[in-house]
Amino acid sequence: MVAITGMVAQNGFIGTTGPEMWVPASAQAEPLRAFDDELGVTMPMKYFDPLGLGKDDDAATFRRRRIAEIKNGRVAMLACMGYIAPEYFRFPGYCSPSADLKFTDIPNGVAALSKMPAEGWAQIGVFIAFLELFPLRQEPDSAPGDAPGCGRLGIPWFFVAGRPGTVSDPAGSERSLNAELNNGRLAMVAITGMVAQNGFIGTTGPEMWLPASAQAGSLRAFDDELGVTMPMKYFDPLGLGKDDDAATFRRRRIAEIKNGRVAMLACMGYIAPEYFRFPGYCSPSADLKFTDIPT
């Protein structure tokens, strides 16, 4: 049911049920790309540019985009960890002694933005500027993302030993560099979803990740029914059945099974016509063949 909803929506946006619907044009056979031998060109997306922003890029523009992609990916990976870690660990002591504000008093997620004192934001801004201008600056003659103050695995030698970092080896570290790019891409999507979900649900706790029906000790009268499986357990993400009696639950379950069966057939019906069509006519009087009907 989720799949067919997404397929219809994606078909509506992209306007096709062909391969372009599933994988961007940059990943299809023989894409006309000048940068297919660059780092980050991996399956399943191959040349990762789902919106086609770089289809007319020259080498200089590609380098600028790649530097931005690596930097944003690194920030996004740290942001994802920063969204989760405060649920389980906080620094002891005060964030602002003058304001009597402890680290444990600052809420997680989006709500923290309004609680951080202005002086704290100023310190963060100065620190970021220091990193951008000195140890993490991008040299014009170095590989994208290769900062002079860091070494292998991003170890910040300027902090650890006060010495310059090592020079990146794109050939020897190809697997690690590809992994960094792909993890950064995933993290950018993830942090966008986490911020949006936090904004809708209003928390960064377990309720953000799983509906209340999947959490321990949920008061459900139907936890011994079929379909109560991990990770969702009692599947009711919108809480529509929280007050159901046995008769209402039975009606909802009948509808769920029926809709699920229709959705499974619909998913197959969306894909199969790309590879097989019935021969002959759908409507002889209208001279309409099965192959003339779009998918």
From TrEMBL:
SUPFAM superfamilies the record matches: Chlorophyll a-b binding protein
Record's keyword terms, sorted: Chlorophyll, Chloroplast, Chromophore, Photosynthesis, Plastid
Family matches, as PANTHER family: CHLOROPHYLL A/B BINDING PROTEIN
Chain sites annotated for binding chlorophyll a: 69, 256, 259, 261
Major subcellular site: plastid
Protein name: Uncharacterized protein
Source organism of the structure: Alexandrium monilatum
GO molecular-function terms, A-Z: chlorophyll binding
GO biological-process terms attached to the record: photosynthesis, light harvesting
GO cellular component: chloroplast; membrane
Compartments, record wording: Plastid, Chloroplast
Highest taxon listed in the record's lineage: Eukaryota
Source organism phylogeny: Eukaryota, Sar, Alveolata, Dinophyceae, Gonyaulacales
Binding positions (chlorophyll b): 74
